[in-house]
Write a structure and sequence with these properties.
Length: about 900
């Protein structure tokens, strides 16, 4: 959401709509409105809105809430400008008006008059494979007089940049973003008033393959959204004489080759500033079919910050190695291109060879059994024109990297002319954390950077090898993401692609947007591996997390049908498919097996710490014997997630007033839980698989009966101790491990694991130089050899524990949008103070605590429409109303003093 600025503390503040935009918010016809209550102790009883739009009489409305309020008046028209403000009414009086918040409606789909235009057909370019094609320059001219307002609306099938009279339009990167292009396409709007001049004007669009038809995933397969690139652009002008003018992309535009001679989001970009502009050829008009144009709820991708070169080293072979000190997503800006004809070759990566100091990316190569190796590439080139003001910024690609190798012959390189542009979705920060333990502060920062590097328009698994929106990764990390940033619009945008990609039978694709288009292709391998527990369940668990965090009931409505289709497919598969081990046990399924989800593919507890062979080398189960791994019984994981999603669906149905559905799925969830217990848990509290992950799930999901919770926790502890006090959890359960231990009375063990330094451990990553979270616990081994991705954010979900337990701030059970929260720090000798803030939908919550000797001091700021419960280590609980709460207690003793004002 885009907030307003400079609001007075005595008035509502942070006014926003549920749409994104570049330099101003841009909505559809019915935006939702949100704001935060005045920073006063009295909770408002209602709010008053004043809305002005395009000179019409103001509209006034009174509403009871301040979160995601439905648009209270007639739908907006295309381009309509809106100013609105709010004030609150409370028992102690009426607040001041907020400052005005302004936004505009975009050009609505039915009002577009521009045509889709496609670059002229070039047989030589058409023969090139994905990853090697050039960008195209599309050009149109128009005449106008004095302009008082100019709005450029544009979108593309491909990635585009627009220029008006040579000036780049807006600050968005990688437009129009990544969506499932067969069903969803977003446009962008920009104010170009200052770029338009009286007389003849030129509009140019640089268009490349992007997500639409470039390479996808680790194996660099071509995206299957379409064969032809296209742009649709409309410029709406208001002239000084009161008239209006529209400039449209149409058959009169031309296309030509430009300086970008190769552009691929994954492989990289080549720009030749000496390349002659190709001949101007007429474009093709209306040669593509595209979905209706919409406006995104998410903030855009932007250049977020610049990092200077931390070091620049020249190798004996003449190559330069630039270290920027931080693994991130983005590209290099190179301002010193050398004399005309100088070719600078840039390769990007996450790691340096420990023996040579040279860049190495071999750990990101990948090979499917029986296939050749797919060699990892992130490679840019630029040829200098000799002009002093030329700057190379490869805006039609993006890379994950900390290091860059530059080769340019004998031409010198000045480190000050080399900058890392950090590029990702411009998410608004919402949470802070700091404590007395610097290792934990560093871990928090590393995990935050890892998420940033993977928030490039969609939540990706890594910014290097795959860069696709794996559902399991985001499902795991989302509860942590919500504590770091406002991810409401970002997540809603991605969920639309998850729905778009859902298969006809109800399965959810492993990743979305799904450029491989598994829902349409007869790829037997991909089809077999689609529909995994913990991955497909994102369609239920992500909207629910967003509802609990932001109060977004509409998100539940938007995803309801997709949720039901997914859960019904899970249930049907559990009922009709059996794992061979159970068939061998009994030809006829036992009664409870109707609810055991074991007969289809599951990724399972992916990326558990790898065992070691006798020689100390790591054993790779999925590579050493992939068939055995595929055949293994993962029914415990599948059935646990079947229960979790079915029970969550029942809760969602209750929120939506669907009482019959709520009762139905509640009954099913109980039967699934009993089936899980029957099949996987014995009377001593041991699971049949006897893994740390299975015990974490039993406790975190409420699968273990109350009478067995202590026994289950004891067995979890025994498995941890058997591993030398190391974790043994993988993808799906690591985030819950430490909270489960702390919540069952084993906080010391939780901290012991958190602070463990030998592998597998988080601090072990940091000790070996990690600046982002690794995919593999041994991402860089003791010899400095890298393996797999070094920026894979899922394991970084551990930082939720720092917020919920170390700081002690968590939302109360059954609370929505932080109307109630709990502050209950879990103390440990390694941390004698912690502080943090969370910019909740109701206002900023601040928590600070410290221990001095035997005393605990704590303070909490409670927003106006929230209440808090402060729980001390001895179990004493106090209610904190809006305002500042302070107290201190003698540790292990009763109340000493408190103050609440």
């Amino acid at each position: 959401m885009a907030p307003s600025a400079h609001d007075a503390p005595s008035a509502p503040y942070d006014l926003a709509i549920d749409f994104g935009g570049d330099r101003f918010p841009v909505s559809g016809g019915r935006p939702r409105l949100s704001w935060k209550p005045p920073k006063s102790a009295a909770a408002p009883s209602e709010y008053e809105l004043e809305i002005h739009s395009d000179g019409r009489p103001p509209h006034y409305a009174r509403v009871a809430d301040h979160l995601l309020i439905d648009w209270p008046t007639r739908p907006l028209r295309s381009g309509e400008q809106v100013s609105w403000r709010a004030r609150s009414h409370a028992p102690d009086g009426t607040s001041a008006w907020s400052t005005w918040h302004t936004f505009e409606a975009g050009l609505l789909d039915e009002d577009w008059t521009a045509r889709w235009i496609t670059p002229a057909h070039d047989p030589e370019v058409a023969r090139r494979p994905p990853g090697t094609r050039p960008a195209h320059v599309l050009r149109g001219t128009f005449h106008t007089s004095d302009v008082v307002r100019a709005r450029l609306y544009a979108t593309a099938l491909g990635v585009y940049e627009a220029f008006v009279n040579g000036e780049r339009v807006g600050s968005v990167e990688l437009s129009p973003g990544s969506t499932s292009y067969d069903r969803t396409l977003y446009a962008q709007a920009a104010d170009v008033t200052s770029s338009v001049c009286p007389g003849t004007n030129t509009i140019e669009v640089v268009l490349s393959d992007g997500w639409y038809r470039g390479q996808v995933g680790a194996f660099r397969k071509p995206a299957g959204w379409g064969e032809l690139l296209a742009v649709r652009l409309e410029l709406r002008l208001e002239l000084a004489d009161g008239t209006r003018q529209a400039v449209r992309s149409d058959e009169h535009w031309t296309s030509a080759a430009g300086p970008v001679t190769r552009a691929d989001l994954m492989d990289g970009q080549i720009t030749d500033f000496l390349a002659a502009r190709g001949p101007e050829r007429p474009v093709l008009a209306d040669a593509v079919t595209a979905p209706a144009i919409d406006w995104s709820p998410a903030p855009p991708v932007r250049r977020i910050e610049d990092l200077p070169t931390a070091s620049l080293t020249r190798l004996p072979n003449g190559a330069w190695i630039a270290d920027f000190g931080q693994n991130a997503s983005g590209w290099i800006a190179l301002a010193d291109l050398g004399p005309a004809g100088t070719r600078s070759v840039i390769d990007y990566g996450e790691h340096l060879d420990p023996a040579t100091g040279d860049l190495t990316t071999s750990h990101l190569d990948i090979q499917r059994p029986g296939d050749p190796v797919t060699v990892f590439v992130q490679h840019d080139e630029v040829v200098s024109s000799g002009a002093a003001d030329d700057v190379f910024e490869p805006r039609h690609t993006i890379h994950g990297f900390r290091y860059a190798r530059l080769v340019r012959g004998d031409t010198p390189l000045d480190a000050s002319r080399l900058t890392m542009r950090v590029v990702h979705t411009d998410l608004r920060p919402t949470g802070t954390f700091a404590c007395a333990n610097e290792d934990l502060n560093r871990l928090h920062e590393v995990a935050r950077w890892s998420f940033r590097g993977n928030a490039v328009d969609v939540p990706t698994d890594c910014p290097t090898r795959e860069r696709i929106g794996w559902t399991g990764d985001y499902q795991v990390f989302l509860p942590s993401a919500t504590r770091l940033y406002d991810v409401s619009g970002f997540s809603r945008k991605w969920l639309r692609s998850v729905r778009d990609d859902q298969l006809d039978d109800g399965r959810i694709a492993n990743f979305s947007p799904d450029g491989r288009r598994i829902k349409l292709r007869g790829d037997q391998r991909l089809d077999m591996m689609t529909g995994s527990a913990g991955w497909g369940d994102a369609i239920v668990l992500v909207p629910w997390e967003l509802y609990e965090t932001y109060g977004d009931r509409r998100g539940l409505v938007e995803n309801w049908d997709a949720m039901v289709r997914w859960v019904e497919w899970e249930l049907a598969t559990a009922r009709t498919a059996r794992h061979p081990s159970r068939v061998a046990r009994s030809t006829e399924p036992l009664p409870h097996e109707e609810f055991i989800w074991d007969g289809s593919f599951h990724w399972g507890e992916w990326a558990e710490p790898k065992p070691r062979a006798e020689d100390g080398s790591l054993v790779e189960p999925t590579r050493g014997d992939p068939d055995a791994w595929m055949r293994s019984d993962k029914g415990e994981v599948g059935t646990a997630f079947l229960y979790r999603s079915t029970a969550t669906l029942a809760r969602i149905a209750r929120v939506l007033g669907r009482e019959a559905d709520a009762a139905h799925y509640t009954r099913l969830a109980e039967r699934i839980k009993e089936a899980w217990r029957t099949e996987f848990l014995d009377d001593a509290g041991h699971t049949t698989v006897d893994t740390q992950a299975s015990y974490v799930r039993a406790l975190a999901y409420g699968l273990a009966p109350e009478a067995l919770r202590d026994a289950v926790a004891a067995r979890l502890i025994a498995r941890i101790e058997a591993a030398g006090t190391h974790l043994g959890t993988g993808f799906l359960s690591t985030a819950d491990l430490l909270p489960v231990l702390a919540d069952t009375g084993h906080a010391d063990l939780a901290y012991q694991i958190l602070l463990q330094r030998s592998s597998p451990s988080w601090l072990g990553m940091l000790d070996r130089g990690a600046t982002t979270i690794w995919e593999d616990w041994d991402g860089v081994d003791e010899n400095g050899i890298a393996r797999d991705s070094l920026n894979h954010y899922s394991k970084g979900a551990v930082i939720r524990f720092l917020h919920t337990h170390t700081l002690g701030l968590r939302q109360a059970e059954n609370s929505v949008a932080w109307e109630r929260f709990v502050v209950a720090p879990v103390l440990h000798p390694s941390v004698d103070w912690a502080r943090g803030t969370y910019d909740s939908p109701r206002g900023t919550i601040a928590v600070a605590w410290r221990t001095e000797g035997s005393e605990l001091y704590i303070s909490v700021d409670v927003p106006p429409t929230s209440t808090a419960t402060v729980v001390f280590p001895d179990g004493e609980a106090l209610t904190a109303a809006p305002g500042r709460f302070t107290a201190h207690r003698r540790l292990g003793a009763r109340r000493m003093a408190d103050d609440h004002r």
